[in-house]
Amino acid sequence: MHMQTRRERVHQAAIDEIKAIAWETANTDGVDHITVNGIAREMGMTPPAFYSYFKSREELLRSLVIDAYHSFQDALIKARDALPESDGARRIYHVYIAYREWSIQNPSMFGLFAGRRVHGFRHGEPEIISEAEKGYKIFIKLFETAWQQGIISVVPLDTPLPESYRAGIELNRRRWNLELPIEVYHKAINIALISHGMISMELSGRFYNQAADMDAFYQYQVLDFMKKLGICYSPDS
To answer: Where does the pLDDT of residue 207 fall: very low under 50, low under 70, confident under 90, or very high at 90 and above?
Structure first.
């Protein structure tokens, strides 16, 4: 096990402070207001000194995005592992509840990786895609386990899936060695889109007329989706 030297500890402390200032800026003014000059001024350093910690603003944003994904994944895993694997229905429900709770508690993190594109940053880099897939796979594996437990019913599709979309599903099924019918995989994507859209609208303040009680409305949507897959679950049971 490598023991950090004093120089390494000081260097890491500066990195942590830079990221803390960046998150504070994101929370108060928005991600687009994160600048090298602003952070350097707050740190009491010159802008050139900043580059001894991060090569560019984009590299800092990349680090923030990865931190956000890790926080997101940890929240999902904590909710999942708080329940036994044999209780697939409860796991699905509580992981989706944890998704919203984490997003509300960390709106800047949610917005950075799941909101609109950030000026000067590219989300399509392999490392970012890999982190995104880790979170996505947590949800998909929950549905696979529930399918294997026999608590999901396959619902025939009303219309054929677009070929490119179907090919993408097939690719992931092979890559991840999934024993999950395409129909169930497609439904899992549906609930991901619905829950993501609801959370995005809630955080942007666009749902205040339609649903005064967002807790109840979100829970209803998750339970309704589960019911359509044949999953019988009541949070009160």
So the answer is: low
Assigned CATH for 1-55: 1.10.10
As a whole number of angstroms, the distance between CA 23 and CA 18 comes to: 9
pLDDT in tens, 89-109: 999 999 999 999 999 999 999
Residue 126, amino acid: P
For the stretch 20-61, pLDDT in tens is 999 999 999 888 899 999 999 999 999 999 999 999 999 999
- List C-alpha distances in Å: 16 to 21, 50, 53, 60, 167: 9, 12, 10, 11, 42
List the domain boundaries for the chain.
1-55, 65-228
Which residues does 95 contact at the CB level (< 8 Å), separation at least 6? Answer: 76, 79, 80, 138, 139, 142
Asked: is 65-228 a CATH 1.10.357.10 domain? The reply is yes
Chain-centroid distance, C-alpha 20: 20
What is the residue type of 181? P
Encode 23-37: b = buried (16+ Cβ within 10 Å), e = exposed: bebbeeeebeebbbe
